[in-house]
Each structure stands twice: as structure tokens, then as C-alpha cells.
């Protein structure tokens, strides 16, 4: 699921900032493909926020529109989840390999001011419900609240060790963001990621034609975002 290469996991709203109601304001759209069990996706989300904060200093009137595409990378995981440590030891080849991978991820996470506490996680969840929540919420929540909801799910899992496969956990997070969610996944499941864009997550596409895969540094994202803006403005 998670690959070291390009720092990724395999298989409508705005980020916090000034909001313009003028339809004439230039808009940079980003389609953000993610899974809530992928630490690289949380890192990628934070890198996007930092890149956006840098870009808007040069383009203060620019509006960033984020379309969230949440996908469960491992839908075959049982609904009740499986032991987290055992899953990764089997997948990566033992405790030493797991420790090395976690050290790599932590180093990148710390560079964007994130704290990952893998030792707190007991259960590797089926993320279908968490993904369904994100896909359902984006049509209901205001931009900042939507961003905060996604952040809160990642924080609950990777920092606090909560079970994000639990309906009760997710409903509490949704309620804290101002969204009353019934826990239904049936109408909010996205098509398979491979059918949608054929790569891993995090995967970002700016203005429909400028793709970036992996948790790349904010400086690299700024460069791609500038290219997308320049192409749109002509």
C-alpha cells in the first residue's frame, strides 16, 4: 500500500485562506485523491496547505478550490479491522523493516509539523466508512470546516490511535465539524482509484491537467501550481 518511492500509498471546498465571492477571480482547482489510512496523504495535505499559503502571497486574489476524492485502498480489510502491528510486519517483512519505514515517514512528517504516533494504533481499519464520510461531507460543509474535518480524521488515527473504521468515532468527528452524518457508505463510495486515475495516493491534479503523485515538498507543489495558474491566465 505505501511506497517509499515518491512518498505515496498505492493500491468542492477550499483550504483555509481568503475566500472570494467574485466569479471573475481566478480559480485554481485541485482534485485531491486520498485514503484516510495513508500517512503520506496527511503529509501531502499539509504540504498543499503550506504551498497554498506561499502562492497566495504572489496571487492574493486567487481562489483555491479543492475537490476531495476519498478511496479505500484496501476494501478487503474486515469491517472490524485487523491488528495494526502484525499487518505491517507481514507486509514489510518484520519489525526491523517496519521501524525503518516508520522512521522515514516520521522524518518527512516532522518537516511539515505533523506528529505521527504509530505505537498508539492498535487496529488497522477498513477505511471505506471514513472515505464515505469525506465524500459526503464536502457538499455539506463550508470550506474551512471541510479541511478541518479531513485533518481531524488523520489526527484521530495517526496521532491519537482512534479506530477510524468505527461508525461512532467518525460520527463524533463529523459532529465536531458541524456535520450530522448517519454513517451510511452506500451512496458515497467512489469508483476504484485505478479506474479513476490509475496511480497511487496522494495524487493531486491542478486545473485538470497538472498532476503530482506523492507527498512532494511544498516548494515543488508551488512550482506546479504556478505553472497551472500561468497556463490558465494565459
From TrEMBL:
Please give the Gene Ontology molecular function terms for this protein. oxidoreductase activity
Q: Where in the numbering of this chain does the DSBA-like thioredoxin domain appear?
A: 29-227
Q: Where in this chain does the entry annotate a coiled-coil region?
A: none
Q: Which SUPFAM superfamilies match?
A: Thioredoxin-like
- Write the protein's name: DsbA family protein
Organism, scientific name:
Cupriavidus basilensis
Amino acid at each position: 500500500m505505501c511506497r517509499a518511492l515518491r512518498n505515496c500509498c498505492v493500491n468542492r471546498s477550499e483550504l483555509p485562506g481568503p475566500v472570494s465571492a467574485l466569479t471573475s477571480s481566478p480559480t485554481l482547482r485541485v482534485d485531491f485523491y486520498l485514503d484516510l489510512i495513508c500517512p503520506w496523504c496527511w503529509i501531502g495535505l499539509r504540504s498543499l496547505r503550506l504551498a497554498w499559503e506561499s502562492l497566495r502571497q504572489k496571487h492574493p486574489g486567487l481562489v483555491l478550490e479543492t475537490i476531495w476524492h476519498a478511496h479505500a485502498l484496501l476494501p478487503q480489510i474486515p469491517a472490524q479491522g485487523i491488528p495494526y502491528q502484525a499487518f505491517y510486519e507481514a507486509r514489510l517483512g518484520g519489525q526491523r523493516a517496519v521501524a525503518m519505514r516508520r522512521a522515514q515517514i516520521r522524518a518527512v512528517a516532522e518537516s511539515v509539523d505533523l506528529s505521527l504516533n504509530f505505537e498508539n494504533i492498535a487496529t488497522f481499519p477498513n477505511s471505506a466508512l471514513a472515505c464515505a464520510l469525506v465524500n459526503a461531507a464536502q457538499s455539506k460543509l463550508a470550506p474551512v470546516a471541510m479541511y478541518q474535518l479531513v485533518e481531524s480524521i488523520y489526527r484521530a488515527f495517526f496521532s491519537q490511535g482512534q479506530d477510524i473504521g468505527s461508525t461512532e468515532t467518525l460520527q463524533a468527528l463529523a459532529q465536531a465539524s458541524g456535520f450530522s452524518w448517519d454513517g451510511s457508505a452506500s451512496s458515497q463510495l467512489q469508483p476504484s482509484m485505478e479506474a479513476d486515475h490509475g496511480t497511487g495516493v496522494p495524487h493531486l491534479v491542478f486545473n485538470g491537467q497538472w498532476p503530482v503523485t506523492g507527498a512532494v515538498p511544498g516548494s515543488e507543489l508551488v512550482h506546479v501550481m504556478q505553472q497551472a495558474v500561468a497556463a490558465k491566465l494565459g
